[in-house]
């Protein structure tokens, strides 16, 4: 098992390296007007003591834009390994500092979404499989397909229209209300939770359908197996057959599916956070990318690559946990 984990870690580092190289190459192929624009803005600042050319040379040197792609990438990689991703052009502070300021909003939203999704999608998928072709199964399937089919911007717009504009239950945008600073700590927590309801519901609806359908499909395959018929023939209670025998063997494909949920939620949160103007990593990255903030864009893409690899490695390790028959040689 230890050799397997080390092998997967090495493979993950290999993929992260080449993924970051591809991202860096694409960014380097973008127009250089981004650097020129930033240098021009800094040179025209009344507080600036440097000329346009001095700013341009400094930016090109800091971000290794005055050398080839391969030397520039290794220069960026050397700084990144030390935790130095440069200074954000748009926010004017180190990238890591800005990341630390906003990442916890995204973590909180996605953890809550993920927990709610598990407690809703998996039980509904099991119920749909147990009652195949019944009205309950059709209702759950329609609900799941609606969640899969609806675009993020459309669902978020519909929710804001009904619950914010028509009913007035929630604010249209933001993470806090206008009187947030005058509230008590408990009231501030409740205010943040209140503003997170619609974003969390949007993310949950978009991801719950796929997990629900996946659970139903795999559960139906297991329920038709010979050992399930044998368990029922022995007179075991239906709950024992479903939750002890059938569901345990459904966990392996579910672990494989859920390994993609974590990185997909963080990347998908970019749209949701932008629509609701939640200052998480998605919204901040969107603002940085649209304004040509190359250092932050490079960091964000590398962050998603690392997150994907960590999720896949954890999924491979969990295979042996959910089923002792799995052996990693």
Task: Walk me through this protein's architecture.
The protein is mainly alpha-helical and 329 residues long. The protein has two domains: 35-75, no CATH class; 104-294, MetI-like (MetI-like fold), CATH 1.10.3720.10. It is 76% helix and 0% strand. It has 13 helices and no strands. It has helices at 2-28, 33-43, 52-62, 69-81, 95-130, 135-149, 152-166, 185-223, 226-233, 238-258, 261-276, 281-290, 294-322. Helix 11 (261-276) packs across helix 13 (294-322). The longest helix has 39 residues, at 185-223. The chain is globular, with a radius of gyration of 24 Å. The relative contact order is 0.13. The model has no long low-confidence stretch (mean pLDDT 81).
Quick gist of this model?
The chain has 329 residues and is mainly α.
């Amino acid at each position: 098992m230890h050799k397997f984990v080390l092998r997967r870690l090495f493979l993950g580092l290999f993929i992260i390296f080449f993924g970051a190289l591809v991202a860096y190459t694409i960014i380097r192929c973008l127009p250089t007007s981004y650097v020129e624009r930033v240098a021009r803005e800094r040179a025209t600042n009344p507080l600036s003591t440097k000329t346009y050319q001095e700013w341009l040379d400094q930016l090109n040197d800091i971000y290794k834009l005055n050398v080839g792609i391969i030397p520039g990438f290794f220069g960026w990689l050397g700084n990144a390994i030390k935790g130095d991703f440069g200074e954000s052009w748009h926010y004017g502070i180190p990238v890591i500092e800005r990341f630390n300021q906003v990442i916890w909003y995204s973590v909180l939203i996605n953890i809550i979404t993920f927990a709610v999704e598990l407690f809703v999608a998996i039980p509904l998928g099991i119920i749909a499989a147990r009652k195949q072709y019944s009205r309950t199964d059709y209702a759950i399937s329609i609900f799941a397909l609606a969640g899969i089919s609806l675009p993020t911007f459309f669902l978020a717009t519909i929710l804001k229209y009904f619950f914010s504009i028509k009913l007035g239950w929630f604010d249209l945008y933001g993470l806090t209300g206008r009187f947030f600073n005058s509230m008590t700590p408990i009231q501030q927590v409740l205010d943040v939770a209140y503003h997170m309801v619609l974003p969390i519901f949007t993310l949950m609806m978009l991801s719950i359908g796929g997990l629900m359908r996946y659970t139903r499909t795999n559960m139906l395959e297991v329920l038709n197996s010979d050992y399930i018929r044998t368990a029922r023939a022995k007179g075991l209670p239906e709950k024992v057959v479903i939750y002890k025998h059938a569901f345990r063997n459904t966990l392996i494909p579910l672990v494989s599916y859920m390994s993609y949920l974590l990185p997909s939620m963080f990347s998908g949160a970019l749209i949701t956070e932008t629509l609701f103007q939640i200052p998480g990593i998605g919204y901040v990255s969107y603002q940085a990318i649209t304004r040509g903030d190359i250092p932050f864009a490079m960091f964000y893409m590398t962050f998603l690559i690392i997150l994907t690899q960590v999720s896949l490695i954890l999924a491979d390790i969990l295979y042996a946990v959910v089923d002792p028959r799995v052996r990693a040689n």
